[in-house]
Structures are given as C-alpha cells and as structure tokens.
Design brief:
The structure is a single chain. The chain is an alpha+beta fold and 530 residues long. 42% of the residues lie in helices and 10% in strands. The protein contains 16 helices and 12 strands. It has helices spanning 6-19, 74-77, 108-120, 161-176, 179-183, 188-203, 214-241, 252-270, 297-310, 336-351, 358-370, 391-403, 411-422, 434-446, 453-469, 501-512; strands at residues 22-23, 48-50, 55-60, 63-69, 85-91, 95-98, 129-135, 138-144, 282-283, 289-290, 372-373, 376-377. The strands form 3 sheets. Strands 1, 2, 3, 4, 5, 6, 7 and 8 form an 8-stranded antiparallel sheet that branches. Helix 8 runs parallel beside helix 10 (336-351). The radius of gyration is 24 Å and the shape is globular. The protein starts with 5 loop residues before the first helix and ends in an 18-residue tail after the last helix.
C-alpha cells in the first residue's frame, strides 16, 4: 500500500477494516469530556511514541494507555489526557473497531499507527481519526487530527526527496549524539549499536579518511574494535579455563557477529588499511596485542572468525555467549536470533577470502536448516520450538545465506523468501527487539535489489511504520515489543536499555539500502577452504 494518493489511502483503510472484526451500530456510550476527575495510575512498561499525535502510550491487553500528552499537540487539542485508554477506532463508512476483536497476531499499536500514518499522508480533509476512549470507566469518542507528513514520491525508494530528508536528519542526529560515548563500556548492546551506526555512515559515502561523517565513523570504528577485542578476550578465557561462569549472562557472540560484519564491510569497501586511523590496540585471543596499523584489518578479521568458530556449539548453532553447552537463565543454549549474525559475519568474511573454518560454516548452515518451519526460522532447533517461525529470524538468516554466497545451492533460501513475502504484514511485531526485526527483514529483502518482489513488499509495509516513529530532532522512537510491558521481563529487554541511537541508526541504514552503496553482492565462491 503506497502513500501517493487518496485512492490508496482508502485502500489502506479498507484493508485494516478487513483485518478487524467490526461492530457497526450506534455510537459508543458517551462519557463526560474534559480533564479526568483524578490522576490515573500509570502501569509498568516502556512508553512508545504514538506517531503524529504528540502522545506516548503503553500497550496493555486490548488497549493503549496514554502516559504522556505534549502541550499543544493533536492529542492535546483532541482533549486526550494521561490515563485515557484507547480501546478502539471509528472509521467513517466502515464502522467501529474494538481492539479486543483483533486476531492474536495483531496489536492495538500496530493498527493505530498504520491508520494514523496513512491518514497523515492522505488528503487534508480526511486527516482525522476518531478514537474510542475509556476514561475512568466511561466510554466516549475523541477526534484527533494527526500532523501531516510529506508524501513519498512515485519513484520511492529511488530518488525520493522525503527519504533523503529523513536520512540526512537521522545521520546528523547520529553524528551529534553523545549517548554511545557516555554509555558504551564493554556491553554487547553498545557494540551492536555502534556497528549499525557505523554502517549507516559508510552507506552515506563517508570513509575513514574523508566525507561528511569522518569523525563519528572513526569513533564507531574505535568502539567496535574495543568491543570485539574485549569479546575475544572473554571468549578465550572461557575456552581455556572451562569456567562455567554466568551462563546466559554473557553476550560475546552478539558483539562478534555484528562487529565482525561491520569490520568485514569496511574491508570490502576500503581495504586492509581501514583500521589505521583508530590507533587502538586489539587483544588477540592467541595472546599478545595486535596494533591495527596499515594492512592489519585482514589479520583482525581472521582472529574474529576463529573466535566465532570456537564459540559455536556442537549443534552448529550459537548461544548469546559464555561457556559452551551451559544453558542460560531461560534454560536454552542456542538462539538463532544471535546465531544468524555469527553466520552472516563468517559468510561475509569467507566471501572476502578471509580464512574461515569451513566446518563451522557447514555446521551453521545445517543448524539453520534444522530451525526451518515451512520457510520460517524458529527460535532454535527442536520440538519445543515448532511453530515459532518469525520474520526477524527468517530475514536475518536470508541475509546470512546471501553473505556467504549460499543462494544457489540452498533450497531453504527460496522457502525463506516466500515466508517473508507471505508474512510481511507481521513486521516488526515479535519478541524482545522489533527494531532488530526491522533491520533483519530489510537486509534480507534487499539482497536482490529494490526491484525484487521481496523488497517491494518490505518497503511498502515499512515506510508508514518508519514514518510513525520519526521525531522532530531527526531521531527515531522504538516500536513496542510484545513482551515490553510484562513485569517478568523487566531489566531483560534490550530495547528498554538503549538510547535513541539504536533505532535511529537502524532506520538510517535501512533507508539507504536502495542506494546500493553498501553490502555489494559477494563474489561467486570457488571450492571452499578447509
């Protein structure tokens, strides 16, 4: 559903109507409008931006609880207040939709944002939406007129002025942001974020030596090298001592997967000397220090590849990190959401002729196949995970196969393509990090270019959701997690621990994929090395 005109807006609304179970009849019972009689109790959870209306809300079952209303915003002008519960929508000519009638795979947030973004980019006279609001037990209708957004042209994603504006604002925010500098120490989350942030700068045409974002790119490179170095040291310590350690508390494999992918891309674009500007020493798992001067990058990538291979479980999958074979706090070992980034890094390095243990690649591909459920990649292998095929894991595995030039000889590739195309409407809903689901699906869909059916399906679904997350300062908000408001996950959700750089870097990278300035197709492989 593109956003070019009124006809398509109506089509979008009709599609939402089909996906909802409507009650058509008299208006909702009227409650008294105005300020609430008493302050509302705010439930646990991370608040999320309700794009276009100037409010934030928390997801509860069948409703969105308003926790913040910006003064003078459309929500404020529409007389919404903190504590109000949005329980449904009223669409002219289509009826009244209560969120409680949604299917299990949809959420109130998804439906509300989808409508708001389509209305905001449509005709001015239709730029309004009636919300069904429960205020202290009284149901009433509140009309909001979301801020209008610029249209994406018919040439989108190629030569789209709106996309270019959003990209520039996001990159400028990332360049000026100090969040990562103050927060990044040795945690995997920060290395992952810095890797994606760095890739976004590289996609813009900046190199470690010249371009608009040289300084922030060098900063990203320095932090990623430091994070990867710490992860290799930690991994070597576990492997040498056999220490059973903290189990799932370690996250080395996330650092090595994303950091290795970022550094491999630098090598692909800028050659062996790309590290020479950092001046940081790299700890080698084999002992001693490696100074990343001229020509040092291939050697560092080789060490990363060996460490990733050494961290591989006997099954062929990867856990978050830490001692091999030790279950984490949730009683599992492998997790394909992490393993596919390790496979992507190894595959990209192998395609660039970095020495990679061929057995590790073969085992990883075999493990990915064992996670296949009708083309969807499950949480891990085994009967307990049947039926859990998900868009984010599938998109990332697609990308990982592409990185290793495994397209032609793996039937699973085409199965995953069909799964993504069939389930694209579920993007990015999913466990723990919807932002990573955006990233994974975008990278997986982009490997054949922006003229491929998979990419077109992704883009048409992604653009309105991306628009709903934009902030006026160029940054992006987070999309709600399906576990984000469950108290038992408090402190365990990656999204809730990360600053705006994480979603902003992700969307800045995704929006630049149609430029084809990053992740050029891997060369056709000769016989694999042992």
């Amino acid at each position: 559903m593109r956003l070019e005109g009124a006809g398509e807006i109506c089509t979008g609304l009709a599609a939402v109507a089909v996906s909802l179970v409507f009650f058509v009849g008299p208006g909702a019972a009227a409650g008294k409008k105005g300020a609430p009689e008493k302050p509302a109790e705010i439930p646990f959870g991370e608040p999320y931006l309700l794009g276009g209306i100037g409010a934030k809300g928390l997801l509860e079952k069948y409703q969105i609880v308003i926790v913040e209303v910006e003064a003078g915003s459309p929500a404020d002008l529409g007389k919404l207040a903190v504590g109000d519960k949005i329980v449904g929508l009223k669409i002219p000519g289509l009826g009244t939709a209560f969120f409680k009638n949604l299917s299990a795979t949809e959420s109130p947030f998804t439906q509300l944002i989808s409508l708001l973004t389509r209305i905001a980019s449509g005709p001015k006279e239709r730029c309004k939406l009636t919300l069904l609001v429960d205020r202290q037990g009284k149901l009433d209708e509140y009309v909001v007129r979301p801020e209008r957004t610029k249209k994406h042209g018919k040439s989108c994603p190629k030569k789209c002025k709106q996309c270019e504006t959003v990209i520039q604002e996001a990159l400028n925010f990332l360049a000026a942001s100090k969040d990562s500098e103050s927060a990044q120490k040795s945690g995997a989350a920060w290395t992952v974020e810095e890797s994606i942030r760095g890739l976004a700068f590289v996609a813009s045409g900046t190199t470690p030596q010249e371009g608009t974002y040289v300084k922030p790119l060098r900063d990203c490179l320095k932090r990623v090298v430091e994070g990867v170095s710490a992860a290799m040291e930690s991994s070597a310590r576990y492997q040498k001592s056999g220490d059973q350690g903290e189990g799932g508390g370690r996250m080395e494999n996330w650092t090595l997967g994303f950091g290795g992918l970022f550094l491999a891309e630098l090598y692909a674009k800028f050659g062996a000397d790309a590290l020479s500007s950092t001046g940081v020493q790299v700890s080698s798992p084999s002992g001693g220090k490696m100074t990343p001067g001229p020509g040092a990058l291939p050697a560092l990538l080789g060490e990363i590849a060996k460490t990733i291979a050494a961290n591989q479980e006997a099954s062929g999958g990867w856990g978050h990190g830490g001692p091999l074979g030790v279950p984490n706090d949730l009683n599992y070992i492998e997790v394909q959401a992490c393993g596919n980034w390790c496979l992507a890094a190894l595959g990209r390095m192998d395609a660039l002729d970095i020495p990679v243990p061929s057995l590790a690649l073969k085992k990883a591909v075999a493990y990915a196949k064992s996670c296949n459920e009708n083309g969807g990649i499950t949480y891990a292998a085994g009967a307990r995970y049947r039926g859990s095929g998900q868009m984010g894991r599938t998109g990332a595995t697609l990308f990982a196969f592409w990185c290793g030039a495994l397209v032609k000889d793996e039937p699973l590739f085409s199965q995953m393509e069909r799964f993504v195309e069939k389930n694209i409407d579920k993007l990015p809903d999913g466990h723990a990090s919807p932002t990573m689901h955006f990233l994974a699906c975008g990278l997986g869909a982009s490997r054949d270019g922006c003229d491929s059916p998979t990419w077109k399906e992704f883009w048409e679904n992604y653009i309105p959701k991306m628009e709903s997350l934009k902030r006026s300062d160029g940054s992006f908000a987070l999309w709600p997690s399906d576990v984000g408001n469950d108290p038992k996950w408090k402190g365990l959700i990656p999204e809730s621990q990360l600053p705006p750089n994480w979603p902003t870097a992700t969307h800045a990278l995704l929006l630049q994929l149609p430029r084809e300035t990053i992740f050029e197709p891997p060369p056709k492989k000769k016989k694999r090395r042992d």
